[in-house]
Amino acid sequence: MCKKVIILGLAAIMLSAGGAVFAQSLVTLDQAISYSANEIETRLEQGAKVMVLNFKSPSQHLSSYVLDEMTNALTRSGRLTTVERVNLEFLLRELKYERSGDISDEAAQSIGLILGAQYIISGLIEEYPANYIVQFKTMPVEPAALQTLTRVGVIRDAQVTNLLGSDSFSQTRTGTSDQTAAGTSGRMAAEGSDQTGLGAADLNRTLVLSTGAGLYGKIDIYNASMGPISITPTIPSFGAPVFLNAELFSYLLVELSPYYRYSSYPEEYLGMNLSALGVSFSLFGQYPIRLADRFTLFPLLGIGYDMPLYLWDKDNHAARWEKDMNISDMFDFLFVKPGVGVNYNLTENLRLSARFLWDFVLYNKSIADQNKEPGVSVIQHGPSLFLGVSYVFFRM
């Protein structure tokens, strides 16, 4: 009976403070964020402008992930309006605040007023012997309104451990409070922009989908020897592709790309200018490396299939090939593609991308037929450069 009275008393205190406890069972970090976002949405008036300000933890990586997830969850539902992250991060840098640190209520309200927010969302993570507690506080910019509090129990799983990285609560609590602050600041400085910035949380996603367009240039080097005769024509090409990309676990990239391409073939090869409409399919293994606040470098190795669907030139050679030989004899290619790519996040969802590859032809029917001839050796390879812009429309 005594235990029941104590439990009911604690519940009444939390409800009177506007808080909510999700204590039925421990959940994953993603589930805790999703639950907290739903609770915040139900407690605020529809259309209210909110600012997801900071999340106090011993790891900037964990803080960035939680803040990105909370912002994305609120943005996707559309019930509330979120402050543009670019503006918020610029202001925090100017004021020398860390999003993984503690920001006072007075400072938070001042930042909210500058950015036109009605409510400020901040959070923290606490360690317990068997689990963690993730807490989010929703505070009005105008102090007369009521604050709300959401607390969710989170299991100790690989996701939280990986996000915490080398940081740990035991390290954070070691020594005096001054030593703790100094140690945390030292780790932040050591980690630098490697753990923060726009797009950082995408490196821990299961699936990221994006679409975009761009321009590319390519030079095909055609090494052909026929007995004593050797020719090495170079074939410049320029194109304008659109693309749909799927990044799986950040280490696998699948790309589907319809394109337009213009190629200039020299006299010793075909002697014409050829235009093509086609589609390419590529599969890359990639290793993301955070270079700076918004930059990510991707060493790449992949395979790609290039299939023109329609060819034309002013002398109508292409039409004859389509009729008499089949397009795949000369212009369908299977490539191996080593190279490197760079992403620059303009905003949370908008990226600039650059990619430099060196394509080596693995198979082309026309080249394979030539290599069957006695004394004939044909190899095709060459560099390509792509510059484009993409929009991330789905994360999971």
Give the key terms.
Rossmann fold, Porin, 2 domains, eight-stranded antiparallel beta barrel, 11 helices, 29% helix
Structural summary, described in words:
The chain has two domains: 2-196, Rossmann fold; 204-395, Porin (Beta Barrel), CATH 2.40.160. It is built from eleven helices and 16 strands. It is α+β, with helices and mostly antiparallel strands and 396 residues long. Strands 7-9-10-11-13-14-15-16 form an eight-stranded antiparallel barrel. A six-stranded mixed sheet has the order 1-6-5-4-2-3, sandwiched between helices.
Give the secondary structure arrangement, pairings included.
Blueprint: H1 2-16, E1 19-27, H2 29-43, E2 49-56, H3 60-77, E3 81-82, H4 85-95, H5 105-115, E4 119-127, E5 131-140, E6 148-155, H6 158-164, H7 169-173, H8 177-191, E7 207-226, E8 229-231, E9 234-248, E10 252-265, E11 272-286, E12 289-290, E13 295-312, H9 317-324, H10 328-331, E14 333-345, E15 350-363, H11 365-371, E16 376-395
Parallel strand pairs: 1-6, 2-3, 2-4
Antiparallel strand pairs: 4-5, 5-6, 7-8, 7-9, 7-16, 9-10, 10-11, 11-13, 12-13, 13-14, 14-15, 15-16
Helix pairs in contact: 2-3
Number of domains: 2
CATH-wise, what's the superfamily of the largest domain?
Answer: ABC-type transport auxiliary lipoprotein component
Number of helices: 11
Helix content: 25-40%
Named at the architecture level, the CATH assignment of the largest domain is 3-Layer(aba) Sandwich
| Major beta-sheet overview | 8 strands, antiparallel, barrel
Strand content: over 45%
* CATH domain fold name of the largest domain: Rossmann fold
